[in-house]
Amino acid sequence: MKKNLGILAVIAVVFIVTAIGGDGFLSAFNLYNLVERISLYAIIGIGVSFVIVTGGIDLSIGSFIGLCAVTFPFLVIGHNVSLTTGLLLLLTMSVCAGLFHGLLVTKLDLQPFVVTLCTLMMYRGVARHLVSDSTMGYSDERFQPLSLMVGRLSELPWFEGQAWARHVPVALLIMIVIGVLAAVFLNRTIYGRDLMALGRNREAAHLSGINTTKMIILAYVLCSVTSGFGALLFALDVVSVQPSTFGSFYELYAIAAAVLGGCSLRGGEGSIFGVILGAALMRLLMNSIQMLGVSDALEEFVIGFVILLGVIIDVIVKRVVAKRRARQQATVAAGAE
Amino acid sequence: MSESEPAPLLSVDRVTKRFPGVTALKDVCLSLQPGEVLALIGENGAGKSTLMKILAGVQLPDEGTIRVAGNSVTLDSVHTSQSQGIALIHQELNLSGNLDVGANIFLGREPRRFGLIDKDTIRKKSRALLKRLGLNVDPDTLVDHLPIGQQQLVEIARALSVDARVLIMDEPTSSLSQHETERLMQVVKELRCDGVSVIYISHRLREVMELADRVTVFRDGENAGELTREEMTHDSMVQLMVGRDVSQFYSRQPHPPGDVALEVSAITSPLDPGQRLSFQVRQGEIVGVSGLVGAGRSEMLEVVFGVRPTLQGHVKVGGRQLRLRSPVDAVEAGLALVPEDRKKQGVILELAVRTNIGLAGLRRHRRLGAFLNEAQEKADSAAMVKKLRIKTPGDLQTVQFLSGGNQQKVVLGKWLAMEPTVLLLDEPTRGIDIGAKHEIYTLMDQLAAAGMAILFVSSEMEEIIGMSDRVIVMHEGRITGELPREQLTEQSVMQLATGG
Ligand SMILES: Nc1ncnc2c1ncn2[C@@H]1O[C@H](COP(=O)(O)OP(=O)(O)OP(=O)(O)O)[C@@H](O)[C@H]1O
Ligand SMILES: [Mg+2]
Hints:
Shape of chain A: globular
Structural class of chain B: alpha/beta
Number of helices of chain A: 13
Largest interface: A-B, 27 and 35 residues
Strand order of the largest sheet of chain A: 1-2
Number of helices of chain B: 17
Number of strands of chain B: 22
Radius of gyration of chain A: 21 Å
Bound molecules: adenosine-5'-triphosphate, magnesium ion
CATH superfamily of the largest domain in chain B: P-loop containing nucleotide triphosphate hydrolases
CATH class of the largest domain in chain B: Alpha Beta
Number of domains of chain B: 2
Distance between the termini of chain B: 55 Å
Number of domains of chain A: 1
Oligomer: heterodimer
Order of helices and strands of chain A: HHHHHEHHHHHEHHH
Structural class of chain A: mainly alpha
Strand content of chain B: 15-25%
């Protein structure tokens, strides 16, 4: 909690400023959409943080999302594959992508940046070629059962008829479940500990009997599977998918969310709660730029700038806290003499 | 200080330094005369390195004054400190492995010609410095390609290149071979003749006795006393450092060994593919591995532990053949390795003492198949901190803030917590103070008595002879002989170590 003070402060400031200055920011409709977007981005942010904890990176997330998003209707509509089989194929595809990245990074010792930069381009190309660059839709009623995932909580049997549930997106629930699972995995299981340890010092971890190769591969697989699942949510949410652009830059948003949330790109550090806050800040910013009527042209600048600010504030807060602690202890020590 | 004495070149007056949770130095004083070799000794965590870092401008003191030639100075950067003529050879290596030797020696002070780095001068000067240290390597060699002992010499060459008035050496010999050590001591004596003052930190009292004009002893961050050259004896120094008597130093009491615990059969020698290596270690036996630096001893341990692939041969632990694919298999079979380079291979600096100690036992103690057993981890770490007397404000302290010797104890603790059947130790007492060394020897003896098989590599002849039931001697990648305890003498070991 303490670690995330800086970013919480920034979120609060942006929220208050937008609430005061922006028309309709606090409307139920806007807040609903905002929360849903935050949830979707947080999910892919959580995915990439597994890889970042190992000291690696996955740049291919965005185009992999594009690939998954076109492949699914391509199978289900285009080739009459059943929904379940389609989902299984999607899962297989994600696992394979993760294995591919992980194997190249560990067995051939290639740099994660290079590997995923190449697959970024490859996935995009395959996506476009597969459907000859044509737009894919998710409006077919065969997708109906899945659309629940991007619906309102009140549409689920357990929450039927409850008024508040109409204002809560199902995606939030999904994100919370994934977040809790991920946090437990990272902080409470031996595998999470393995990842944290090898992210700091791979050789020492290896010599302590940790199967570093297997764990790194696992991290890439988890990342790709989360992205594949995220792809489905994103696609169901927007309904129509452009193979050439769908998912573009999502990897950067995911990475930015992770970094904002305290993951170090040097590895070995990261908190799931932080990543969720990071995603929240980013989506909130995009929303407030619209709400405050800032010129569209400035959007990227503002986002980049505020993220940088967030990271800077975070570092400063940490330093001040550390210094204060040292001083406290010094006075305690002096008093004891 | 009496009026008649000459003004000290360097004096430290009532310096205090606090870190979160620890007072590393409390009102310490120290003085250094021109052309004097002052030895600074004390147990791990006594504050020696901290004071030296303050003198080198790496850290600022909280209180106290430092005078150079009578003038009070503020040493707020390495640069200021160097311009006062103070140079420090750090305890831990601080080289850029991706640069060559010459570039490392002159890093930050590169000689220039026409605004560009003057490679020729660097090469020439580096070669001269290295030669002075008896190191015969080309200045264009990448530092990463040098063994750790030679890297240490490069570090020393770098400090020499500053032309310091005060040269501080923080455990310079901990990774040097005997020969390299002797060469270094010679260099120190030459420096003294040239009028350079040296502060020499070491846990090896023999070196201290040979070199020092005076000894200052620290204990728990405070001055514990001072000895003149005449008062300097092994016992008097230990007495001041530890505050108690450590007489019976090597406590090895061999028992009749049990079954074969580790059997290495005809593995390919990592240094010389034409050679095969075979040996056995029995339960309850302590086997030393001796040889000159570069004889391939560490490499042999790495093969046994599955770090290094071997082409042929096999390793059996407790009669069962080991798959030599990775340390994962080795650990599962009950093997443990305390590696040579603790900072890179032993500990994870940014993690807590407790996490480090728990690392090897993660799998063994897991609950419900995958979950951390935090209670066990906490108990293990508390037990190890106590058993090994690890000096730390608490086991949640990050390992990087521990003194070097205490970091080594953390590595030991990590393995002992999982009770291995075969313990491989690579230079286990490097950088460890005399009290802790004694504790480690006692521990080795106890572990062996309890049936553990111990194989330890060491460059310290004394401990090889003092602790081993049997010694395997290596030379240039092959085993040149084995000596039972009765035949162990410095000469017999050296003869085999130099090729028999
Ligand atoms: N940056 C730091 N932060 C917190 N504690 C520190 C830091 N540096 C040193 N310490 C603590 O200060 C004390 C003195 O450490 P120091 O490294 O000076 O010991 P030392 O005498 O050099 O020991 P060794 O013989 O093991 O090298 C230790 O308890 C150590 O844990
Ligand atoms: Mg030290």
